[in-house]
Structures are given as structure tokens and as C-alpha cells.
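The instructor's notes for this session suggest beginning with a concrete chain rather than abstract definitions. Hand out the sequence below and ask the class to guess, before any prediction is shown, which regions might be ordered.
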Amino acid sequence: MRSGAGVIATVVVCSADGPTLRSICDRLVDHGVGPLPATDAEVGSLLCRFGRADVLILDLGLPGRSALDLLRERTRDPGFPDLAVLALAPVGEAPQEAGDDPAVAVDDLLPRPLDLDHLVHRLETILRRRHARHDSVVRLGELVIDPPRHKVTVGDREVRLARKELVLLRVLASDPTRVFSKEELLRDVWGLRGPATSARTLDSHASRLRRKLDPEGRRFVVNCWGVGYRLVESLDDAGPVADGRGEDR
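After discussion, reveal the predicted structure:
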């Protein structure tokens, strides 16, 4: 599996559940990845630090609070590598939206029991996004998106975003020159596919993101009627088929 431009990805898989760890690693090997397995957070941290990992697949059901400790270490320790995290919900628990605490934010969250094909699809999506904007600070007028620091500012104001809002913004920022269709965004941000998928979740997240970035709704995230969303410096730059609202007219 490659992250783009021929770069082979390195993936750390951290789970105390032996069958889960083996099944994920076997599937990654089938897709050309030599995974680095870890059975606890301490080993996972060492592999992330010294294995030059691109992605950490982290089982949130690790004993104790070690999974959250590892996420906090990733955010707060400047020596920890900049990598993406694909988290696995504990067995029997439905995935929940991460809160506004960036210290425990992840790039994606999958339910248990796992669908390994879906896991591979989400991993490929993360790697595409990561390659498109790895370490690149995006500036659009007063809006500054700093992926390595998980930081977003508008002028002198820091904007605190929920996990999915940040992922949505980073996808839009990966190519501010074009409109992303709703189907693309639902696929790349939520892993939802198919023409019957409701866009209401996307519209509500886009609306909240827009208000956080600009309470007047005249800049940055705009809705292109009947198509999708794009990122612009101001509504005037978006053309005649866009407005600042989160739902189609």
C-alpha cells in the first residue's frame, strides 16, 4: 500500500486482542504493507517513534487508559512523530464523535467487530489525504490551517474544531481550487458510500464549521448548489452558484 507518489507507507497496529492484531496484520500484508505489530501502548509508542510510521491503527480497548494516554502523548510530546491515527472502537461500543479536546483527536474511528475491507479502504483514504497535505500549512486569506500542530487560526483567533470538522476542513483545504462533491466528502470524511447516503450529516457539519470560522458566514466554507462544498477566501470568489449556507436552496 502506498501513500502516493510511490511512497510506501509504514503502519503500526496496536491491539491487545491477539486475533484482531493478527487479522489486521495479515490483511495489510495482503495489500503490500509490512505492518509493525504492538500489543500495548508502550511498544506502540516506541514503534511509532523509531519506525518512522505514517499511520497508527489503535485499538481503544487497550487495558486501562493506555490508548488515551498514547493519543495524548502523540499530541503533547513535540518529539512524537506526525502521524495519522485510525482508531478502533472497543468491542460492544458504538463509535462516538470525539469531543473538542484535540489531545485525543483521531483521523478516523471504526466500529467493532471489524470489516477488514472497510478498514483497508479507510486506511487508503487517510494515506491519500496525508500525502496531499503532509506538513503543508495552508493559508487562505486570514485562515491558516497547520496540520502538524492540529491548529486552525483566523487572523489572531484560534478556532477550536471537533474532530470531524477538522477532517472536513483539511479535505477541503487539500485542493481549494475546486468543488468537492457531497459524495466525495461523505466518502473521505465519514467513509459513507452509495447514492442513497443522506447528506444531512455533511450539511450540519459544514454549517457548524462555517460559523466557527466566520460567524457571519461570508468566508471560507461555501455551498455550491446541488454539487458540494469548496474552500474560498470570500463568498465573492466562489462564483454565482454558491452561497454561505449549509443546505442547498
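Then share the key points. Residues 214 and 220 are 8 Å apart (CA to CA). The chain has a mean pLDDT of 80.
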